[in-house]
Amino acid sequence: MEYPASDWRKLQRVIDGLRTQKELAELALRKEGALADVVKKNQQRLEEIDKQLGEYTAELEQLRDSIKKHKQPLYYGDYLALDNLLASQLPQSDFVGKHAHDELLFIVTHQAYELWFKQILAELDSVQRRMAPSFVTGGSIGRIVHHLERVIQILRLLVQQIDVLETMTPLDFMDFRDFLFPASGFQSVQFRLIENRLGLDAKRRAVHDQRPYHAKLSCAHAQVVQQAETGGSLFTALEQWLERTPFLQSKSDNYDFWEWYRTAVKRMFDSDAEVITAGADGTCHRPPLPMLPMLPMLHMLPMLRMLPMLPMLPMLPMLPILSMMLLLWWCRVASLRVVLGRGEASDAS
Predict the structure, then answer these.
(1) pLDDT over 70 at 314, yes or no
(2) Are 317 and 297 in contact (CB under 8 A)?
(3) CA 318, 313, 259: angle at the middle one, nearest 5?
(4) Does residue 53 contact residue 11 with C-beta atoms inside 8 Å?
C-alpha cells in the first residue's frame, strides 16, 4: 500500500503526541502520594498508549517501506527537465539546410532572457502581495526590499549578457537574419508584463507603426498583457501605501510631506547647479552630491516625524535604480541593433 507524504507527516505528529502523553503518565505514576485509583487509571492509560504507540509505529514503518519501494531517487536532469530544456533550441537555418553557427548563441541568449524575466515577474508578484494588505509590517518591508534588490541584480546580469551577444559580428548575424522574419522582440510577452507590473501607463507608451504595443502579439498573449494593465502595479501599490501613511500630512501643524519632499529635491538640484556653474577660480569647492535618488530622503532623516518612515527608506531608492537598469538594458539592445543592422527581423534582439 502506498501512502501520500501528508499521511506520513500526520502519523508522525500522532506518534509524537502519544509519546508526550506517555511521558506525562509515567511522571504521574512516579509522583509521591498519588492515590491508588489515580495510579490505577494512569497505569491503564499507559497500557493503552503503549498499545496505540506500537500500532502507529508499525504503520509508520510500513509507510516508510512503501515510500522507499515506489519512489525513485530524484535525478538532477529530471528535476531541471534538462532533456526538454536542451532540446528547445531550434535554429531556423538548420531547417533550410544552411547552418549558421551563431544562431544557437542568439537563441540561447534570448531564452536566458525569458527565464530571467520569469523570475523577475515572480519577485514582483511577491512584492505586490506583501504590499496589498492595509497594514504592511516591518518584516514585510524587509522582504520587499530583498525582492527588489534581487530584481536589480537580475537586470544587471541581463545588461552584462549583451557582452556575450556582441561577440557575434554583423556578418554572422546576416547568416540567419532573414530566417527570423517576422519574429520580433516586440513579441516578448513577459517583458510587456514586467512593464505593466512596474506601472507603465499604456497612454505613455511610444506608438510603433501607428498600432498599439500588443498588436504584434497573438490574440491570447494580447489578452494577457491587456489584463495586466488593470491588474495592479508596483507603482500603484507603492502609491496607495504612501497614501495610507498617516504622517504624510498634518493639518494641525501645516505639515505636507510632498511639499517638504519637493523642497528637498529643489535644494538638491540647486546645489548641483551651483557646482556646475562655479567660476573657473574654484570659489565653489563643494563636490556634487552623490546618491541622487536617495538624497531627498537623507535630508529628511533628522526629522522626528519621519521615524515611522525609516523602514521604507531602503525601498524607495530601488525604484529609480530598477528603472535605470531597464533603461540601460534597452540602450544596450538599441546600440546592438544599430551594429547588426536594424530591421524587422533584428527586432528579436
Answers:
(1) no
(2) yes
(3) 100
(4) no
Each residue of 182-234: pLDDT tens digit?
888 888 899 989 988 888 887 877 777 778 878 788 889 988 888 888 888 88
Terminal C-alpha separation, the chain = 54
- Give the separation between CA 127 and CA 237, rounded to whole angstroms: 9
With bands split at pLDDT 50, 70 and 90, how would you rate the model's confidence at 300? very low
Phi, psi of 250 (to 5 degrees): -145, 110
- In terms of residues, how long is the chain? 349
Nearest to 313 by CA among 297, 302, 327: 297
Question: Which residue, 9, 206, 173, 3, is CA-closest to 103?
Answer: 173
For the record, the C-alpha cell of 153 comes out as 541584480
- Segment 93-102 long-range contacts (CB within 8 Å, at least 24 positions apart): 93/175, 93/176, 93/179, 95/179, 96/179, 98/175, 98/176, 100/172, 100/175, 100/176, 101/172, 101/175, 102/168, 102/172, 102/173, 102/175, 102/176
Instruction: Give Dmax (Cα) for the chain.
Output: 103
Give yes or no for a contact between 232 and 128, defined as CB atoms under 8 angstroms apart: yes
The answer, yes or no, to whether the previous bond of 308 is cis (omega within 30 of 0) is no
Helix (H) or strand (E) holding 250: strand 249-250
Q: Judging by beta carbons within 10 Å of its beta carbon (0-12, 13-18, 19+), is residue 206 exposed, middle or buried?
A: exposed
pTM score of the predicted model = 0.59
Q: Are the C-beta atoms of 225 and 196 separated by less than 8 Å?
A: yes
Count of beta carbons in the 10 Å neighbourhood of residue 212: 15
Q: Given this model, what pLDDT does residue 327 score?
A: 67
Percent of residues in the chain assigned helix, strand, coil, to nearest 5: 70, 0, 25
- Give the contacts of 229 (CB within 8 A, at least 6 positions apart): 196, 202
Query: Is 122 within 8 Å of 204 (Cβ atoms)?
Result: no
Within 10 A of 311 (CB to CB), how many other CB atoms are there? 17
Query: Tell me, what amino acid is at 96?
Result: V
The half-sphere exposure of 325 on its side-chain side, counting CA atoms within 13 A, is 20
CA 345 to chain centre: 30
